[in-house]
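Ops channel
N.P.: pipeline sanity check, posting one input/output pair.
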């Protein structure tokens, strides 16, 4: 039987880190440092001179260490990854992707067409209502393609691509350094930058990279005490922000990823932040490895993709449409044995009492059955008119329930609106109104008798009414009215948008002032 070999690679700032695993255990560990000229090769592409230099370095290193695995899993550094977390209203899984595409455009500084992205929706309760937390990760397609082409030129096939954050979490979970049901802050302290990752139920909820110091030519001038103070302050700011944004999740533990003995750092963090701090080194995860760089854990974690079952899939290499499934976070609570003992002491006397009084309860139930039997005999005298009235009342309730809307196309046409607005036009408000379901159902029943002669019943009354209010601004105020007409024209001529409505009309257009600037107000009605 063939060995289960996997090759993970983490693309660092100026070093490639490789970890080959056999059955989930590290087998070969190596790194490929770049030359000064090769550090900027990504922008030049795989076929540029420096790009081919990296290809040659990779091939020589793999050959020298006798790495035979040709399929790789790629882990990418936070500097290349866009990480966002935001909430949306509760909706059906079929509607989630279009809404996320619409919402993500607010938080991402690039067009979605330029990105390769993945997301994971997590339902949660917020008071009496339900909402969905979306974990969104993305990378620019151009950057991703350059990474892939360089590895392909080195005769490697890229199978999985994911953020290094996910890889790091997977490695720690696989080695039992992180509980699956806790909220933990992972701290990675580098020479110049630091990273904080808040993890809850194996999922990153918050990711932030912060600057620790500016590189100095004279390393003796580094003030270690000031550096530690900067680290503590950055962690405190990050945790305070996260705890305000996510009141339902509170960080209770800190895990410090370090390459050396960090007893002083652990003590300082624990004293200042008043949280338990657990240090983890590369050697404690990769046993007998003569390496101290934390980046090897990211290469190791991405190599474990098949060995660890993750709640979420953040594979950025897949071009096929993402199947949306609502995530479920299991709740795991420890058994309170004292509480169980107290409940048992209370329940035992009740159990004995119930056993002794069972005969009395049975006789009481028999008496109730006889009383109900007598009442049932008298029901034969109920009038036909009374039954008809009850039947009509139930029919009205049933008609109302049938008319209640259970689906909506709102997300589809909302996603189209931003693409139809010309430059200088913005929307102030959107109102979507559906007609009352009961009159609609009654009208449908009236038309049911003639539908056989005229074909299918008309469904115009079930369509929503959309009222759009907004403004237009151009330097030449005379051009603003023309710009509003362009909005109306683009809405009417777009087949995908106009398919939702029978009439699209410009109800109001008027000149106004906004902060002493001349603007044009407009209101469109689509029904």
């Amino acid at each position: 039987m063939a060995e289960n070999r996997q090759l993970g690679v983490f693309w660092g700032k100026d070093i490639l880190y490789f970890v080959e695993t056999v059955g989930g255990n590290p087998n070969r560990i190596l790194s490929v440092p770049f030359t000064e000229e090769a550090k900027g090769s990504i922008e030049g592409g795989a076929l540029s001179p420096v790009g081919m230099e990296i290809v040659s370095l990779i091939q020589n290193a793999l050959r020298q260490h006798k790495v035979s695995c040709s399929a790789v899993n790629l882990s990418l550094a936070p500097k290349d990854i866009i990480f966002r977390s935001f909430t949306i209203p509760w909706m059906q899984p079929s509607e989630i992707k279009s809404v996320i595409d619409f919402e993500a455009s607010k938080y991402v500084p690039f067009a979605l067409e330029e990105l390769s992205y993945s997301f994971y929706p997590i339902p949660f309760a917020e008071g009496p209502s339900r909402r969905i937390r979306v974990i969104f990760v993305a990378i620019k397609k151009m950057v991703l393609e350059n990474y892939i082409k360089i590895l392909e030129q080195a005769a490697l096939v890229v199978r999985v691509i994911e953020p290094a954050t996910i890889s790091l979490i997977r490695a720690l979970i696989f080695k039992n350094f992180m509980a699956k049901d806790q909220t933990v802050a992972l701290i990675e302290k580098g020479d110049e930058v630091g990273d904080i990752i808040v993890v809850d139920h194996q999922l990153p909820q918050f990711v932030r990279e912060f600057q620790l110091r500016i590189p100095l030519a004279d390393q003796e001038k580094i003030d270690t005490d000031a550096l530690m103070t900067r680290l503590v302050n950055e962690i405190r700011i990050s945790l305070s922000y996260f705890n305000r944004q996510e009141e339902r999740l509170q960080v209770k533990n800190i895990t410090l990823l370090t390459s050396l003995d960090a007893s002083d750092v652990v003590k300082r963090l624990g004293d200042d932040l008043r949280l338990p701090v657990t240090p983890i080194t590369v050697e404690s995860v990769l046993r007998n490895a003569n390496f101290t760089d934390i980046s090897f854990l990211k290469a190791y974690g991405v190599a474990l993709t098949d060995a660890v079952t993750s709640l979420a899939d953040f594979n950025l290499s897949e071009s096929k449409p993402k199947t949306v499934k609502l995530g479920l976070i299991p709740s795991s609570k420890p058994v309170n044995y004292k509480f169980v003992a107290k409940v048992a002491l209370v329940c035992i006397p009740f159990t004995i009492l119930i056993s002794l009084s069972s005969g009395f309860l049975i006789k009481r139930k028999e008496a109730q059955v006889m009383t109900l039997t007598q009442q049932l005999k008298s029901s034969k005298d109920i009038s036909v008119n009374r039954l008809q009235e009850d039947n009509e009342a139930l029919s009205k309730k049933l008609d109302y329930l049938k008319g209640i809307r259970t689906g909506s196309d709102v997300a589809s046409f909302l996603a189209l609106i931003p693409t139809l607005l010309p430059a200088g036009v913005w929307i102030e408000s959107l109102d979507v109104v559906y007609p009352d379901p009961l009159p609609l159902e009654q009208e449908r029943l009236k038309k049911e008798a003639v539908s056989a002669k005229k074909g299918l019943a008309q469904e115009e009354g079930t369509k929503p009414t959309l009222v759009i209010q907004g403004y237009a601004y151009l330097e030449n105020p005379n051009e603003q009215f023309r710009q509003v007409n362009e909005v109306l024209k683009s809405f009417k001529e777009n087949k995908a948008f106009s398919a939702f409505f029978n009439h699209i009309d410009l109800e109001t257009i008027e000149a106004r002032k906004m902060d002493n600037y001349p603007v044009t107000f407009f209101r469109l009605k689509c029904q």
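N.P.: looks fine end to end. The radius of gyration is 32 Å.
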